[in-house]
Amino acid sequence: MIYLDNAATSWPKPEKVYDDINRCMREYCANPGRGGHAMSIASGRAVINVRELLARFFNIKNPMHLCFTKNTTEAINIAIKGIINPGDHIITTCMEHNSVIRPLKTLEKYAGIELTIVKGNEYGEVDPHDVKNSIKKNTKLIVCTLSSNVNGIIMPVGEIGRIAREHGVLFLVDAAQGAGSIPVDVEEMNIDMLAFPGHKGLLGPQGTGGLYVADDVRLRSFMEGGTGSNSENTYQPEIMPDFLESGTLNTPGIVGLGAGVEFINSFGLNNIRLYKHMILSRFFEGLEEIKNVKIYSKKSMENNSGIAAINFENTDSSEISNVLDSIYGIATRPGLHCSPLAHETLGTLKQGIVRFSPGCFNTVEEVDLTLEALREISVKL
Amino acid sequence: MIYLDNAATSWPKPEKVYDDINRCMREYCANPGRGGHAMSIASGRAVINVRELLARFFNIKNPMHLCFTKNTTEAINIAIKGIINPGDHIITTCMEHNSVIRPLKTLEKYAGIELTIVKGNEYGEVDPHDVKNSIKKNTKLIVCTLSSNVNGIIMPVGEIGRIAREHGVLFLVDAAQGAGSIPVDVEEMNIDMLAFPGHKGLLGPQGTGGLYVADDVRLRSFMEGGTGSNSENTYQPEIMPDFLESGTLNTPGIVGLGAGVEFINSFGLNNIRLYKHMILSRFFEGLEEIKNVKIYSKKSMENNSGIAAINFENTDSSEISNVLDSIYGIATRPGLHCSPLAHETLGTLKQGIVRFSPGCFNTVEEVDLTLEALREISVKL
Predict the structure, then answer these.
(1) Is B151 at the interface with chain A, CB within 8 A?
(2) What is the pLDDT of residues A283-319, one digit of tens each?
(3) Which domain covers residue B286, as residue numbers?
(4) DSSP H or E run through A106
(5) Residue B196 — φ and ψ, nearest 5°?
(6) Measuring CA to CA, which residue among B134, B123, B128 is closest to residue B95?
(7) Rounded distance between C-alpha atoms, residue A174 and residue B3, angstroms
(8) Which SUPFAM superfamilies match (chains A, B) (predicted)?
């Protein structure tokens, strides 16, 4: 199979990810932070190491303010529901995933929050001035995706962060698409909360993700439960990361995530970015020679986190993806990608989009085979 | 290391757990329920298989009403916060883990719920009549642990379930301790909601767990986000299990959990129970010959899910555990085990307890070595 669905989850993972997970489970996987025996300490140390690794990766000063979650969705829910009160105003964008839109729409409906969705250009790119102009007295939070999971468009997160800081508004970035291929610096970008997945660009396993919360941001707890700390306290302890990490952590998953990030560090984030861009450029070049293709992604590396979103005229996106899968063994994702607003922006709510999302293990040969398949399909349509 | 901390997390796992996780990650781990390509379908099918396997394991009629969570704590939070409204009365017991107590105390403090904590006997065993007598007009929910994570005492869950059903009160069981060693039948036991971990008695990996919700129980959503279903809907879809499963699932973890349950099924739940009881009986017998030991667990299989909770007179439990770990390489868990109420009940809030929790891979030799170590320790005290 030619796997071009890395925006859903990256595959394959670096060998070290498989190996480290396996070794963790076989050799030392006790419950981290519970009990003081050698194996529990080894598990705890492994978790701390990855916490520190990720903190360095995102330039987070205090690793204890990075908590592990099961996925980005959990991180976003913790962040939004932990800070928002009835009457608050939230600004978000037209390219958000349902992991942002559904919590916000639910809060709008049941908890009396006010919501502004800033529109973008034809690619969904928002103008920071429009964000600025949407700020009101009761604006509490701006939520913005790092890049779109539909067409890869990179949002002006740095500029929006500056505006948020200037206006005393909190800034939450959904880095589900882009963490691991776009450099993220929470300090430089004025990010107060960063939600990210482990299993996409960071090359870790599914079941991992995280949330960074700046030192001066006070959330309500989202889940209460055992933390292995302050056990005598029948209320949630307020120290981080325990405050947001109730119940047993996914130790082998976190270890695997650490191996993924180590791979990125050893290869170099920028080199991975350049490699993926080379793959994607070749794909875009090849598409130029194929008839009836509509492209919804920008082609430059500065504007695209690594996705080619296309359609064949008005053909349903599922039809193309099905043929790619069943005849050519090529994995893509059609439909709406859990992002109806983005498709509304791109005008593809009905047709969907065929999304090609190569990863750092895809080869030039695979790109050429995919282009060949698309050429054949275009002739038959 | 002699690992006697299976109540925290089971270790080792059956070989098939390691192998299936590894094969899943290497061979077919795409995003289940997202996209229709061969690998995504293979992942989705693997998840469904485990859902059905677990449903059969707990006698859940509709597998779609079993949703996967990252741990038991998440499952309990989803259940309690999804059903409780201000003014509701909740009954729970004196042996609950902080995963139950902390959400309840938080709701009591901030959301105006009323809480009754039913006391038990010297082992923490509650009398179902006391539960019955605590029911009031506004009682919405009874929450009870299947067995205590501190001393293994098994609660009369079946009888409490009958009482709950007779009074039209919902019944949530926390099966963190006991699932995989005590037979659980949600129909027979009148369980409306069952929260369970994947990484303890079910022998799966950390990062897994689940919540069963009976067909006629309507929860509020806990997290909203992408579900891969009804993507055009900017609100959470109401179909189960999607309603409670936002964001990418932990596919390899769930596959590993399936392998754990298959191991239990092939070995036989009752055989595992008998084997663990044999191990534990030998341990209790040996303890009788050791001076100054106080035992807080019942010894019979009908009353104990598999824990020996002990102390040496008034010696701090951490001191004993530390010696066991550092001198003898024996892993136990001292302290409060995230269950302050249970320790209050047992009178060990200050001293803690040294918890021995053997698993189905512990051997008679390991028990004897542990007893030998305890004999030496008792002499030196």
Answers:
(1) no
(2) 999 999 999 999 999 999 999 999 999 999 999 999 9
(3) 2-10+268-380
(4) helix A98-110
(5) -145, 155
(6) B123
(7) 40
(8) PLP-dependent transferases
Nearest by CB: A30 against B5, B34, B69: B5
Is A316 touching B (CB cutoff 8 A)? no
Give mean pLDDT, residues B70-84.
Answer: 98
The rounded distance, in Å, linking the Cα atoms of B88 and B138 is 5
Task: Give dist(CA B193, CA B230) in Å, integer.
Answer: 26
DSSP class of residue B26 equals: I
Which ipTM did the prediction report?
0.98
Q: Parallel, antiparallel, or unpaired: how do β-strands A89-93 and A139-145 relate? A: parallel
Distance from CA of B338 to the nearest CA of A (A): 5
**B291 in the same domain as B229:** no
DSSP symbol at B58:
T
Q: What is the pLDDT of residues B43-65, one digit of tens each?
A: 999 999 999 999 999 999 999 99
**Total domains, chain A:** 2
Nearest-CA distance B223 → chain A (Å): 6
Whether residue A148 is found in the same domain as residue A234: yes
**Cβ A231 vs Cβ B98: under 8 Å:** yes
Q: To which residue do tokens 């099905």 refer?
A: A322
Residues A273 and A262 in one domain: no
Inter-chain residue contact B106 with A35, CB threshold 8 Å: no
User: Which of chain A's residues have a Cβ under 8 Å away from the Cβ of B97?
Assistant: 225-226
CA atoms lying within 13 Å on the CB side of residue A372: 11
* 3-state SS class at B327: helix
Residue B140 three-state SS = strand
- Tell me how crowded residue B327 is: count the other CB atoms within 10 A of its CB: 11
